[in-house]
Amino acid sequence: MLVVGLITASAQQTPPELNELWDLHAGIATIASALGALIIAHAGLRWIMAQSPEERDEAKKTIIYVIIGLMFVVMTKDIVDGVYCWTLTTAGTGSC
């Protein structure tokens, strides 16, 4: 039930109270994307130049963790929008 409410609420328009937060989110997402690309490139080089299977596994794990982290950064806005709107509609204090 909560998931349906979050999906429905996240599809609605962004509340004006959160605009400042989204400006911050956009800045953080830009920085995270740039750092993520650099870390993935570095891990890729480590993977190519690895001498042992352990070093290759470590480089692969780094790439996977960075991709998961970037996915989290991208999904954060929808999650916060959904929870905020779901809370407003459930409490009966407003809607999005």
Task: Please write the string of helix (H) and strand (E) elements.
Answer: HHH
Number of strands: 0
Indicate the radius of gyration in whole angstroms.
19 Å
Mean pLDDT: 83
List unreliable stretches of 5+ residues.
none
SS summary, helix count: 3
* Helix content estimate: over 70%
Intertermini distance: 18 Å
- Shape, principal axes of CA atoms: elongated
| Main pleated sheet | none
Tally of separate domains: 1
Structural class by sheet pairing and helices: mainly alpha
Note the beta-strand portion. Answer: under 5%
Structure overview:
The chain has 96 residues and is mainly α. The protein has one domain (20-91). 81% of the residues lie in helices and 0% in strands. It has helices at 2-10, 19-48, 53-91. The longest helix has 39 residues, at 53-91.
